[in-house]
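Hey, can you fold this one?
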Amino acid sequence: MSVALVTGGNRGIGLEVCRQLARNGHEVILGSRDREKGERAARDARGEAGARGEAGERGETRGRGETGARGETRGRGETGARGETGGHVETGTRGGEIRVVQLDVADEASVERAAAEIATLDILVNNAAILYDTWARAATADLDEVHAALETNLFGAWRTTQAFLPHLRRSAHARVVNVSSESGSLNGMSGGTPAYSVSKAALNALTRVLAGDLRRDGILVNAVCPGWIATDMGGPGGRHVADGARNSTKISGSASESTIKTVLTSIVPEKSASMRQAKAP
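Sure. Predicted structure:
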């Protein structure tokens, strides 16, 4: 079983990636700036994943004419090194578990604590991001806002990757997936959202540089563009992150399936330094 850490995992795309990874059998570490919000998100994910797992188990046992496990879910608290109670949240008979770690990618001390708390890691999903500044223009942008966006969207991913490189180097199949945006593509870039766009362009560049540097270590580094998604940051009008379960291993609805499968596919890519983009439905 692979161990995956998802930064910014308590909501939106990050939370859905956590659900999907757990459902596919990975052990998931949900990184959240606010531990309490992370615990709530993990409990929600447990309920949904458990319900889907239960439905899948019942469907399979009906097909065999046998009475099997009903995919019950349970949560158990675990005391970490710092005396905090973290959640190991099991996601049903077929899924992995979701554990929460306090992680603010813009805070070096927080990242270092998380790296010390986590013993093993195979997959790092750098999802945390802020400030989709639709109101701003580059000519008049507040550079303090730009700096804040860079601190999370670029340096946060960079800092977290550096902190977990010792873990990833010990893995036989290490992956780094940077959740980026078409807003950071130089080919399509024009005006608007200067802080967000520049930070994502820099993240794309970091992806290429890291991929080259880490190739000799066998660590694949890629970026993904999930498209416009209706999240707290993306705002209304975008595609839904999740449209409900079709069965225990697949999200129904082409929008969310395309979005999350784009991220999940990048966990097992054919090559490094690629950029995958979700297709619109």
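The first helix runs from residue 12 to 23. Let me know if you want another pass with a different chain boundary.
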